[in-house]
Amino acid sequence: MFGRARVELKDGAQVRAMRAAGLVVAEALAEVRAALRPGVTTAELDAVARDVLARAGATSSFLGYEGVGAPPYPAVTCISVNDEVVHGIPGDRVVEDGDVVSVDFGAELAGWHGDAAFTAVVGTADPDDAALVETTERALWAGIAALARGDRLGAVGDAVQDTVEEVRRSGGPRYGIVHEYTGHGIGRAMHEAPTVLNYRARERGPRVRAGLVVAVEPMLTRGGAATAELEDGWTVVTQDGSRAAHWEHTVAVTPGGLWVLTAPDGGAEHLGALGVTVAPWED
Ligand code: MF3
Ligand code: CO
């Protein structure tokens, strides 16, 4: 998406400002998760996130966002259900028991953006859906952890693909990795250089160093990786109707390690388990 465009590194004060935006995102997603149950509409879930923005004195990164050849985005969340992968528009759809629901949310606070997403199965989960969601979350954390080890950004895509291939090798399902949508740099704009791929590529990408801030966001499906866009100009679905999951965090590379800006604990729990140091940028 951004080709060889310049990567704008952030300093400590800027990363701390982004942490404040990231915490608004974390709060909104926690409240939406708490409200997620059979019978709720996706518009009601969007309203929960909207309230958090108002309370925090923040604005939406998504509302009014201009896509390519699409109408301005009309909501503060993207809510994508079952075969919807990303960019589902909240509305009067009623969430049902067993639905796979992905919620993506971005906030802008004092000029800085945060962006994160989770997927959950509502109510009684089909074990195969639960495994998809769990594997996608694991791919996210593997991708994030790779930022601490790899010297090039391509290490993220390697780690996501390795996670998927390891599941397959150990006799699990063959998940599709969506290629058409990627992670991205983030800062004063929601989408900045560099592009963050979710698969192994020959191009190794820019160097990973302190001040790099990216949104890592793998999307996996229980079937093929091919997607299609609906008539509304936004909603992305799998072509084969298979269910999909999407997890995302905004992550800063700091002088001492990583800082997951949209995780309440900065990533301590998940990265600690992977042997990666969480280091807030304190100067
Ligand atoms: N959060 C999405 C991303 O991760 C973008 C949402 S599209 C928008 O890149 F129109 F809602 F902003
Ligand atoms: Co994003």
Topology, element by element:
Blueprint: H1 12-35, H2 42-56, E1 59-60, E2 77-81, E3 84-86, E4 100-109, E5 112-121, H3 127-149, H4 154-169, E6 176-177, E7 183-185, E8 192-196, E9 213-216, E10 219-221, E11 227-229, E12 236-238, E13 244-246, E14 249-254, E15 257-260, H5 268-273
Antiparallel strand pairs: 1-4, 2-4, 3-12, 4-5, 6-10, 7-8, 7-9, 9-14, 10-13, 11-12, 14-15
Helix pairs in contact: 1-2, 3-4
The structure holds 2-amino-4-trifluoromethylsulfanyl-butyric acid (MF3) and cobalt (II) ion.
Ions and ligands: 2-amino-4-trifluoromethylsulfanyl-butyric acid, cobalt (II) ion
| The CATH top-level class label | Alpha Beta
For the report, how would you describe the main beta sheet?
5 strands, antiparallel
Arrangement of strands in the largest sheet: 8-7-9-14-15
Envelope shape: globular
Q: Are there runs of 5+ residues with pLDDT below 50, and where? A: none
Order of helices and strands: HHEEEEEHHEEEEEEEEEEH
CATH superfamily label: Creatinase/methionine aminopeptidase superfamily
Q: Structurally, how many domains make up the residues? A: 1
Q: Determine the N-to-C terminus distance.
A: 33 Å
Report the count of strand segments: 15
CATH architectural category: Alpha-Beta Complex
Taken as a percent bin, the fraction of beta residues is 15-25%
Helix segment tally = 5
Helix content: 25-40%
Backbone structural class: alpha+beta
- Under CATH, the topology can be stated as Creatine Amidinohydrolase
